[in-house]
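Predict the holo structure. Ligand: magnesium ion.
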Amino acid sequence: MLPAVDVRQAHKRYGSVHALDGVDLSVGQGEFFGLLGPNGAGKTTLINLLAGLAIPDGGQLSILGCDVVKQYRASRRLLGVVPQELVFDPFFSVRETLRLQSGYFGLRRNDAWIDEVMHHLDLTDKADTNMRRLSGGMKRRVLVAQALVHKPPVIVLDEPTAGVDVELRQSLWRFIRQLNRDGHTVLLTTHYLEEAEALCGRIAMLKQGRIVALDSTQNLLNSVAGFRVRLKLAGGLPAALLPQVIEQEDDGCLLALPSYQALEQVLAQLREASVAVHEMALQQADLEDVFLQVVGRA
Amino acid sequence: MLSFQTLFYKEALRVQKVAFQTLLAPVLTALLYLLIFSHVLEQHVEVYPGVRYTAFLIPGLVMMAVLQNAFANSSSSLIQSKITGNIVFVLLAPIAYWEFFLAYTLASVARGLVVGVGVYLAALWFAQPPMQFPLWVVLFALLGSALLGSLGVVAGIWSEKFDQLAGFQNFIIMPLTFLSGVFYSIHSLPAFWQSLSRYNPFFYMIDGFRYGFFGVSDISPWFSLAVVSGCLLVLAGFTLALLKSGYKLRL
Ligand SMILES: Nc1ncnc2c1ncn2[C@@H]1O[C@H](COP(=O)(O)OP(=O)(O)OP(=O)(O)O)[C@@H](O)[C@H]1O
Ligand SMILES: [Mg+2]
């Protein structure tokens, strides 16, 4: 089966910045794939190359087998992109915007689907409102709707939940999950790691234009220390425990624990140093730990 | 083809939504020129024998409005879309570069012609120039507005800020239109300026256009037609190459 997204040795430079430094990535059809990384890692740049918004300096990228440069019209038809920036055309209403977008994709009578998309994104009563009059979150929904007008088999969402309220976030994910179940491939970037953990089957982590981790979400979670413990102490942390520190705050710290047994050793060391424990909370490792470990280390 | 039609329709819709500014205001401006120049010069100037100055002035003003509005349309639409970022919707779509070119250029032609017709009809109230060869009139209006529409695409893509576009307009378009013989025949200029005018493509557009009205011109309309068509071909080729390369649009 053709990969939904195939990236080979993608390079992109902006002046002295190597925004993408030889990225290899393959996303299978029907996957829910997460692309994570700190600010400036190159996530948007990679999406821009896939969408033809930027031209690669090297490498090949294709959508369902269509080269994004040589077969740009075919590849763009297969791709729906929700851009990261909140952009809109102030001249038009929501419905006009969606009709125009359909027309750009060569679809003449698309109102039934437009109505359905607006319904799922809770935009129906804003259909005839001018884009200028929408709140930020509503503009974001229209961006999502615009990306979906042509029912693209591959959907790319660049931080679609930035600045969006809880309710929409949930209804948006319900809708995207449904599209994914119906066979659409989804590629997602987000800074909300719980979101990625809950939704994505596989995840790639980018840092400074390179992929530093690429695996199933489960394997990534298994790869880090199993637990962590948050402590509030009466005194300073004994030196012997410093290597385990993940986070240090004024009044407490977060330690990595490979296993439950390790907790005994931590407590023993604290007792030995006569440091009293005010508060203790045990937590399961999550994607944030993976992220900090992988991105911090690499 | 539907991509092209939609993009053209979007541009036309945009013009309609701000018709006050895009259609009515330019007609008013042209009428002000007409009012003032004809009032001041009517008694003193007779460019072509037997033609009142006001009547002489009308075709030039009409063409000037056509050209300026064709340029303004594509250039301002593009720079607005670039600055607000909504150009991304067009760039994400499977629109071929030549469809992009045709849509923006033809929308410019349409706006130029609508404004031109508006200026012409309003000006008839002041004086009624004859229209000897309507085909020449239409031909030069079409070619001229396409040329300026295409130039507007280039300017809109090249400019990154509004003041760069304003510079383009103030230092290139305005001087070339004013020095093209809208308000006079180049035969009334000193020799140096006369020969300089011959390097100004706007001169040929105005002169050819005016020929359609009076059947008289500074140069043969066939020559003007050749110059204007040649310029259009070269510029269209350049614009298409620019769009194909993704210059300043696809970073
Ligand atoms: N058009 C551009 N011109 C110059 N530099 C750019 C351009 N676009 C991106 N960059 C640079 O490329 C690098 C990668 O940027 P990119 O937008 O891809 O990051 P990102 O991973 O999407 O970050 P964020 O999480 O903040 O959205 C950054 O250093 C950025 O400054
Ligand atoms: Mg980004």
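The domain at 5-222 of chain A is CATH 3.40.50.300 (Rossmann fold). Chain A has a mean pLDDT of 90.
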